[in-house]
Amino acid sequence: MKNKHVRILVFLLIVVCVFSFGCRGEEEAPEGQNPQTPDEISDKPQEEVEEVTDEEITSEIQQEEGVIGGKVYESDEYMVGTMVIEKGVSQERINQLAAKYADQLKEKYPDKKINVQAVQDGKNVAEITKE
Protein backbone atom coordinates (compact mmCIF):
# COMPACT_ATOMS: atom_id res chain seq x y z
CA MET A 1 0.00 0.00 0.00
CA LYS A 2 2.79 2.40 0.94
CA ASN A 3 4.55 1.67 -2.38
CA LYS A 4 1.36 2.56 -4.27
CA HIS A 5 1.07 5.93 -2.49
CA VAL A 6 4.71 6.76 -3.31
CA ARG A 7 4.16 5.98 -6.99
CA ILE A 8 1.03 8.15 -7.12
CA LEU A 9 2.85 11.00 -5.36
CA VAL A 10 5.83 10.77 -7.76
CA PHE A 11 3.47 10.65 -10.75
CA LEU A 12 1.60 13.75 -9.52
CA LEU A 13 4.88 15.63 -8.97
CA ILE A 14 6.02 14.77 -12.49
CA VAL A 15 2.68 15.91 -13.95
CA VAL A 16 2.84 19.20 -11.99
CA CYS A 17 6.42 19.84 -13.14
CA VAL A 18 5.61 19.08 -16.77
CA PHE A 19 2.63 21.42 -16.76
CA SER A 20 4.40 24.21 -14.88
CA PHE A 21 7.39 24.22 -17.25
CA GLY A 22 5.46 23.33 -20.38
CA CYS A 23 2.80 25.98 -19.94
CA ARG A 24 5.31 28.79 -19.48
CA GLY A 25 6.00 29.03 -23.24
CA GLU A 26 6.66 32.50 -24.56
CA GLU A 27 5.88 35.47 -22.42
CA GLU A 28 2.98 37.51 -23.66
CA ALA A 29 3.33 41.21 -24.32
CA PRO A 30 1.54 43.56 -21.94
CA GLU A 31 -1.99 44.39 -22.92
CA GLY A 32 -2.13 46.86 -25.81
CA GLN A 33 1.35 46.00 -27.07
CA ASN A 34 2.16 43.51 -29.79
CA PRO A 35 5.46 41.62 -29.62
CA GLN A 36 7.81 42.29 -32.52
CA THR A 37 9.62 39.63 -34.47
CA PRO A 38 13.24 40.22 -35.52
CA ASP A 39 12.04 40.74 -39.11
CA GLU A 40 9.69 43.51 -38.03
CA ILE A 41 12.39 45.22 -36.02
CA SER A 42 14.89 45.24 -38.92
CA ASP A 43 12.25 46.62 -41.31
CA LYS A 44 11.96 49.83 -39.31
CA PRO A 45 13.79 52.74 -40.91
CA GLN A 46 17.04 53.58 -39.23
CA GLU A 47 18.18 57.12 -38.64
CA GLU A 48 18.91 58.57 -42.01
CA VAL A 49 22.45 59.80 -42.37
CA GLU A 50 22.81 62.76 -44.66
CA GLU A 51 25.11 61.69 -47.45
CA VAL A 52 27.45 64.37 -48.73
CA THR A 53 27.94 64.07 -52.47
CA ASP A 54 29.91 66.08 -54.97
CA GLU A 55 27.30 66.63 -57.66
CA GLU A 56 29.70 68.47 -59.98
CA ILE A 57 32.30 65.68 -60.25
CA THR A 58 29.55 63.02 -60.19
CA SER A 59 28.03 64.68 -63.25
CA GLU A 60 31.42 64.78 -65.00
CA ILE A 61 32.00 61.07 -64.36
CA GLN A 62 28.56 60.15 -65.66
CA GLN A 63 29.19 62.07 -68.89
CA GLU A 64 32.47 60.28 -69.66
CA GLU A 65 32.41 58.01 -72.70
CA GLY A 66 32.26 54.37 -71.63
CA VAL A 67 30.87 55.14 -68.17
CA ILE A 68 27.40 53.81 -67.37
CA GLY A 69 27.12 55.49 -63.98
CA GLY A 70 29.07 56.85 -61.08
CA LYS A 71 28.99 58.82 -57.88
CA VAL A 72 31.30 60.84 -55.66
CA TYR A 73 30.48 60.91 -51.96
CA GLU A 74 32.04 61.42 -48.54
CA SER A 75 32.55 58.43 -46.26
CA ASP A 76 34.22 59.26 -42.93
CA GLU A 77 37.68 60.63 -43.75
CA TYR A 78 37.45 59.56 -47.41
CA MET A 79 36.04 61.05 -50.57
CA VAL A 80 34.99 58.05 -52.63
CA GLY A 81 34.51 58.01 -56.38
CA THR A 82 32.78 55.07 -58.01
CA MET A 83 32.38 54.35 -61.70
CA VAL A 84 30.49 51.60 -63.51
CA ILE A 85 32.19 50.97 -66.84
CA GLU A 86 30.62 49.53 -70.02
CA LYS A 87 31.80 46.18 -71.34
CA GLY A 88 34.43 46.54 -74.02
CA VAL A 89 36.21 49.56 -72.53
CA SER A 90 39.95 48.86 -72.37
CA GLN A 91 41.81 48.49 -69.08
CA GLU A 92 44.10 51.34 -70.15
CA ARG A 93 41.10 53.69 -70.54
CA ILE A 94 39.69 52.55 -67.19
CA ASN A 95 43.01 53.27 -65.46
CA GLN A 96 43.16 56.72 -67.11
CA LEU A 97 39.66 57.57 -65.86
CA ALA A 98 40.39 56.35 -62.34
CA ALA A 99 43.65 58.32 -62.18
CA LYS A 100 42.01 61.45 -63.61
CA TYR A 101 39.28 61.52 -60.98
CA ALA A 102 41.60 60.50 -58.13
CA ASP A 103 43.81 63.50 -58.98
CA GLN A 104 40.81 65.81 -59.38
CA LEU A 105 39.32 64.75 -56.03
CA LYS A 106 42.67 65.12 -54.21
CA GLU A 107 43.03 68.63 -55.62
CA LYS A 108 39.52 69.60 -54.53
CA TYR A 109 39.68 67.83 -51.14
CA PRO A 110 43.34 67.99 -50.01
CA ASP A 111 42.47 67.23 -46.37
CA LYS A 112 40.62 64.00 -47.27
CA LYS A 113 41.86 60.57 -48.26
CA ILE A 114 40.75 59.66 -51.77
CA ASN A 115 39.49 56.32 -53.06
CA VAL A 116 38.38 55.85 -56.66
CA GLN A 117 37.01 52.52 -57.86
CA ALA A 118 35.91 51.31 -61.28
CA VAL A 119 33.65 48.29 -61.78
CA GLN A 120 33.16 46.49 -65.08
CA ASP A 121 30.95 43.43 -65.52
CA GLY A 122 30.53 43.12 -61.74
CA LYS A 123 34.27 43.09 -61.04
CA ASN A 124 36.46 45.76 -59.50
CA VAL A 125 38.87 46.53 -62.34
CA ALA A 126 40.61 49.61 -60.93
CA GLU A 127 41.15 51.11 -57.50
CA ILE A 128 43.27 54.10 -56.61
CA THR A 129 43.79 55.37 -53.07
CA LYS A 130 45.54 58.63 -52.24
CA GLU A 131 46.42 59.60 -48.68
TrEMBL record:
Region feature Disordered, mapped onto this chain? 26-61
Bias (Acidic residues): 48-58
**Identification of the protein by name:** Sporulation lipoprotein YhcN/YlaJ (Spore_YhcN_YlaJ)
- Organism of provenance: Alkaliphilus serpentinus
Q: What is the lineage of its organism?
A: Bacteria, Bacillati, Bacillota, Clostridia, Peptostreptococcales
